[in-house]
Write a structure and sequence with these properties.
The protein has eight helices and ten strands. By secondary structure, the protein is an alpha/beta fold. It has a domain of 189 residues: P-loop containing nucleotide triphosphate hydrolases (Rossmann fold, 3-Layer(aba) Sandwich). The radius of gyration is 19 Å and the shape is globular.
Length: 275
C-alpha cells in the first residue's frame, strides 16, 4: 500500500469517547456517573443519547465540549484530544439563555464576536440572517427575547449555536420544555438545519420519539454508572416525515428502546441498593 493510506477510522470517526469513567465528589462521597463508556460517531451523523434520569447524559455533553475533563479515558474530535473548550463546538440547551438587552440578530452573532473577530460586522449579520431564514424567523431579527414564544426562542438558540459553523453541534434537551405541537415543529426545523448545514450532532433527550425521528443512531446508556448498553440504527432516511413515527417498523423500534430503558432503570435501582 502507498504511504498516503489512512485507516478508515481516521477518516470517518469524528467524535470518539474511549473508556470514559467519571465520578463527582459529593459531601457523602464519590458518585460514579460513567464507567468505561466508549462509542464513536461518524462525520456528519446525528446521534441521540437516551437513558435513565441521572445516568450521566449531560456529563457526556460537557466532556465532548471540553468543559469537563474525565477522571479516566479520552475524548477525541477530528482525531484531536479534547482537553479544553473548543471553538469548533456549538451547544444549545433546554433554557435558551438569550440576552434581553440584545435583539434577536445580536443574540445570534454573539459567538462570532468571540471566535470570528476577523469577520466583518456585515458578514456576521448576513450569516445570522441566513440562519434566521432557515428557521422561519427572518421577520423577527429586531425583536427582543421577551417578545418571542418559547419555540421561537429555541429557534434563535439553534441559530446562535450554528452561526460560527461548528464541526460539532451538541443539543442537551433543547425541546424538553416545549408543548407537544411546538416540539414537533422544532423537530422539522432541526431536520432543515441538518440538511442545509454541515455538522456532526449529539442530542441528549428523554423523548424516544424525538430520538428516533431526528437521529441516524440512538445510543442507550445503562443505569448509573453508565456504559453503552444498546445501539439502534435508524433507517428513516433523509426525507423523513412525522407520519414515519407511526409505521410498524418505527413502532417496533420505539418498543425496543422502551424495553432497553426499563432494563437500564432496573440496573440503576439495583446498583443503588447495594452501594
Amino acid at each position: 500500500m502507498g504511504g498516503d493510506y489512512c485507516h478508515p477510522q481516521q477518516i470517518y470517526m469524528h467524535i470518539e469517547l474511549r473508556n470514559i469513567s467519571h465520578a463527582f465528589q459529593l459531601e457523602t462521597g464519590l458518585l460514579p456517573v460513567l464507567q468505561e463508556l466508549s462509542f464513536t460517531i461518524s462525520k456528519g451523523k446525528f446521534v441521540s443519547i437516551v437513558g435513565p434520569s441521572g445516568c450521566g447524559k449531560s456529563t457526556i455533553t460537557r466532556l465532548a465540549s471540553g468543559l469537563l475533563k474525565p477522571n479516566h479515558g479520552e475524548v477525541y474530535i477530528s482525531n484531536e484530544l479534547v482537553s479544553s473548550p473548543r471553538s469548533t463546538v456549538g451547544m444549545a440547551f433546554q433554557n435558551p439563555v438569550l440576552l434581553e438587552w440584545r435583539n434577536v440578530l445580536d443574540n445570534i452573532v454573539l459567538p462570532l464576536e468571540i471566535v470570528s473577530r476577523e469577520m466583518p460586522k456585515a458578514g456576521r449579520k448576513q450569516r445570522a440572517r441566513n440562519l434566521l431564514k432557515l428557521v422561519g424567523l427572518e421577520e423577527f431579527e429586531k425583536s427582543r427575547p421577551s417578545e418571542l414564544s418559547g419555540g421561537m426562542k429555541q429557534r434563535v438558540s439553534l441559530c446562535r449555536a450554528l452561526v460560527h459553523k461548528p464541526e460539532v453541534l451538541i443539543l442537551d434537551e433543547p425541546f424538553g420544555a416545549l408543548d407537544a405541537f411546538t416540539r414537533e415543529d422544532l423537530w422539522q426545523t432541526m431536520l432543515t438545519l441538518k440538511r442545509e448545514e454541515s455538522f456532526t450532532c449529539i442530542l441528549i433527550t428523554h423523548d424516544l420519539r424525538e430520538a428516533v425521528f431526528l437521529a441516524d443512531e440512538v445510543l442507550v446508556l445503562s443505569g448509573r454508572p453508565a456504559t453503552l448498553q444498546y445501539k439502534l440504527d435508524v433507517s428513516l432516511g433523509d426525507n423523513r416525515k412525522l407520519t414515519d413515527l407511526y409505521t410498524s417498523q418505527t413502532t417496533k423500534s420505539l418498543a425496543m428502546l422502551r424495553n432497553q430503558i426499563k432494563i437500564a432503570q432496573e440496573k440503576q435501582i439495583n446498583h443503588e441498593k447495594f452501594c
